[in-house]
Amino acid sequence: MVKESPLKLTFASRMSAADLVKLMPAEVWLLRMWLLRLQADSASLSLASDSELRNSKQMLLLDALLDWLLEFAELVDWLSLRKNLHSDSA
Fold it and tell me: How many CA atoms lie within 13 A of 75 on its CB side?
């Protein structure tokens, strides 16, 4: 298992929407892989924890945040593909 994420959360959180659209497909792939790894780490933590921690508000919020981030990565991927299609047709 990799000890460090390919992208740091601070990298993703400091980017503007305009910067996200400029991401290359490989960067979007790295972002998605990092988010999937974060989601897997969260799932393994919830499985290893007792039921009180698993049902805590913090775990529920973390799961919701990870779901949102994955949907966001898919949106960025779609936007970058759309941008590439428009630039190819021009």
Answer: 8
**What is the total count of domains within the chain?**
1
In 3D space, the residue among 25, 38, 27, 24 whose CA is nearest the CA of residue 70 turns out to be 38
Determine, yes or no, domain membership for 1. Answer: no
pLDDT value for 75: 77
Residues (pLDDT < 70) of the chain are 1-28, 41-55, 57-58, 86, 88-90
How far apart CA 86 and CA 64 sit, in angstroms, is: 33
User: What element of type H or E holds 41?
Assistant: helix 25-48
Task: Indicate the angle between helix axes 25-48 and 57-89, nearest 10 degrees.
Answer: 170
Q: Provide the b/e sequence for 30-50 (b: ≥16 CB within 10 Å).
A: bbbebbeebbeeeeeebeeee
Tell me which residue range forms the domain holding 61: 20-89
